[in-house]
Amino acid sequence: MKKILFLTNKLPFPKTDGRKNILMQYIEAIKEIDPNISIINASFVDDETYLSSIPKEIDKVLPLERPGMIEKGKNVLLNSLILRKWPLQVSVFYSKSTHQQLLDFITTENPDFIIYDMVRVAEYLPVHKRVHLVLNYDDLLSLRYKRQQSYIEYIPSIFGGFTDKLPKAVRKIFNTKKLQKAILSFESNLLRKYEYKVAKKFQHLVFTSPKEAVEFAQESHHHSCTGIPMSFEVRNDISRKNNYNPHKVLFVGKMDIAHNVAAVLYFCENIWPIVKQKQPELEFWIAGKDPTNEVLQLQDRFDGVKVLGPVDDIKKEIVTSAVFVAPLVFGTGIKTKVIEALSLGVPVVSTSIGAEGIKYTNGLNMYVADDIHQFADYIVELVNHPERNKQLARNGKKMVQEDYSKDNMKQKWKKILASVH
Predict the structure, then answer these.
(1) Which pLDDT score is estimated for 333?
(2) pTM as predicted
């Protein structure tokens, strides 16, 4: 019987965000391939209460100790600032004592595979142990941060809520766009070198985007780069049919994440006024937990904008909308929010960044535009022409059914697992 260890930077359960969702899909797919496979999880814990609800697919969980502030500081000073060998996020996740804790666990459990969740945990390598190593990049963070620099004015802070705990004078320094842009540039450069360097230590590399997997394989010459996006099973019982709100334009996302905040700010400031001028009755709904103050203020700044915050049934919000928008201006990988909307039979209008990695044909199964006037025109067209709305929705749903099924995901994992006999 094979045993697989997932090493994760946060618990892969419960399914409260996109990252946890895809990790649990991977775990479930592997168990469906072979129910006798034992899956164990060594993880940094993002919420202690989650440990009381371990999914049946996971046989054991080892909570990992996070490095203390002193060790983080030493790592950042030596390995990031002086030696320039680790990105900042690797430095703040690495601990020598935790590494030993993990080595002891590996010796006891003797897994056949270790699947690492993102490059930030890639330094926790086994020593003198024959085991197949898989690095799950998620997406290329170096590229995401590079793109983010061009839209820094739409990001309240790259530090999230961290600066709220700092003295006012210090907080003001940290919140300057010049400093934030410099930090993003520094981290992006370190990450790019590290992403290619660390790849050599792993037998298999996994990306959420097949496009990024192909491009990384070409540049790194790694023999095994696989794109495994989140799967979406098309369910006709919850599709929207004809009972949607014809005035509702929707965006969905966790609203304290930089690329989501930037997307709605950019949309409201540049595209929404054009839409409202042509179609005054339309409303722009923003659904998702933890909206920042900047997002909440959009309701007062722009006519017809509604910030819903967390919703009980996100699928219901999607299927009752006339158009789903993905006006992302930076980001990498496949945007699962777009695939989900398409799977539910809702037409999507997206920027090229929002549609990146999706095998779409513009005008056939979704609309893609970076020009703000064209983006606005697509929304207005779909609102005013119900038959065109229905046609685009139907074609988008068919694309998801063909390219993002659970069977496709299982076949890709089956090929990776077959490397151990």
Answers:
(1) 82
(2) 0.88
- As a whole number of angstroms, the distance between CA 219 and CA 5 comes to 28
Residues 6+ apart with CB under 8 A from 70: none
Of 101, 115, 108, nearest to 66 by C-alpha is 101
Select from 21, 206, 132 the least CA-distant residue to 419: 132
Residue corresponding to tokens 């299927």: 319
Give how far the C-alpha of residue 43 lies from the chain's centroid of Cα atoms, to the nearest Å: 18
Which value, in Å, is the radius of gyration of the alpha carbons in the chain?
22
Distance separating alpha carbons of residues 50 and 156, to the nearest angstrom: 30
Mean pLDDT over 234-258 rounds to: 84
Q: CB–CB of 215/207 below 8 Å?
A: no
Mean pLDDT score, 66-95:
96
Please report the DSSP string for 121-183 in residue order.
GTT---SS---EEEEEEES-HHHHHHHHGGGGGG-S-TTTTGGGGS-HHHHHHHT-HHHHHHH
Contact, 185 vs 158, CB < 8 A? Answer: no
Give the side-chain half-sphere CA count within 13 A for 3. 13
pLDDT digits (tens, 9 = 90+) for 305-336: 999 999 999 999 999 999 999 999 998 888 88
List the structure tokens of 197: 């360097």
Continuous segment of H or E residues that includes residue 64: strand 60-64
